[in-house]
Amino acid sequence: MMLVDRAAGTVSHHMFRDLPGFLAPGDLLVLNDSRVVPARLLTDDGRIELLLYEHLGPNRWRCFARPGKRTRSGHSFPIVQTTATIESIDEADGSRVVRFETEPDLEHRGHMPIPPYLGREDDAEDRVRYQTVYARENGSVAAPTAGLHFTPEILAAVPHAFVTLHVGPGTFLPVREDDLGAHRMHGEDYSLGAEAAAAINAARRVVAVGTTSLRVLESRPPGPLAPGQGRTELFIRPGFTFHHAGALLTNFHLPKSTLFVLVCAFADSDLMREAYAEAIREEYRFFSYGDCILIL
């Protein structure tokens, strides 16, 4: 675990088990308890792939599909013991609305949607290791990976509360526009319970565990947090004013991603570039199954 001290402008190196020692009395960790759904579906011949990411109603999902030429509007095909029909295509992002003859059995027929950059198919171990130990609310197509570092023992040693944000496919999409304001974020559903809101309001400092937890917090209005739920398209970029999160634990992210932009907003961009360069020199592991960085 790398530690970045924003006030001092320093970078230091530690182990994740040292985390409780960097917390002060009154600090509270806020974690995302969303559970990854095995929502990646393949036809028997492997020629068509669907990544389901939003349940629109009985037998209907919004998804990404490939290849495009085999998943045009009106096209039907057998997949995971049912039949899928492409109802419509969003020309802006290429997503599809698909209707199934019967609801697909994701738990038994679906694949874990591990990140494409891993360059391999998912395996049985991903069913366990691509979930946090506290995952409980079904809905994500990507793990809130900062939470993958926690064991039950470390979690029990730190004050914590849970929020829920179901991670959508936008986590995979790079920023392609030179103007960050032109980047379109996919909406993601979140919820903040009454118990968590009360704990957060009573905390001296809130440590967001992962960018998803931070986005839940900062999607709420300034001032004391009220319980609630909603859908957020918040894109946090340099110049953003943070109202609720005072520290951030996160992994090392892909370049040109909204996640790296977020950490540059939370800390000074030059400091974060220095931290990433140091991580490369020290051979930190990057991305979903990699190491983490604590920004205080």
| CATH homologous group name of the largest domain | QueA-like
Count of individual helical segments: 7
Structural class: alpha/beta
- The succession of helices and strands, N to C, reads EEEEEEEEEEHHEHEEHEHEEHHE
Percent in helix: 10-25%
CATH topology of the largest domain: QueA-like
The overall average pLDDT, rounded, is 93
Give the strand order, joined by hyphens, for the main sheet: 2-1-17-16-14-3-12-13-15
Q: What does the radius of gyration come to?
A: 20 Å
Q: Assign the CATH architecture of the largest domain.
A: 3-Layer(aba) Sandwich
Q: Can you identify the CATH class of the largest domain?
A: Alpha Beta
Strand content: 25-35%
Q: How many beta-strand elements?
A: 17
Outline: globular
Q: Summarize the biggest pleated sheet.
A: 9 strands, mixed
Account of the protein in words:
It is a single chain. The chain has helices at 106-109, 126-129, 152-156, 194-202, 211-218, 258-266, 269-281, and strands spanning 2-5, 10-13, 27-32, 34-36, 40-42, 49-57, 60-66, 76-79, 82-89, 96-100, 137-140, 160-165, 188-192, 205-209, 228-232, 247-251, 292-295. It has a nine-stranded mixed beta sheet. A six-stranded antiparallel beta sheet has the order 5-6-7-10-9-8, with no helix packed on it. It has two domains: 2-36 and 115-295, QueA-like, CATH 3.40.1780.10; 40-109, QueA-like (Thrombin, subunit H). It is α/β, with parallel strands linked by helices.
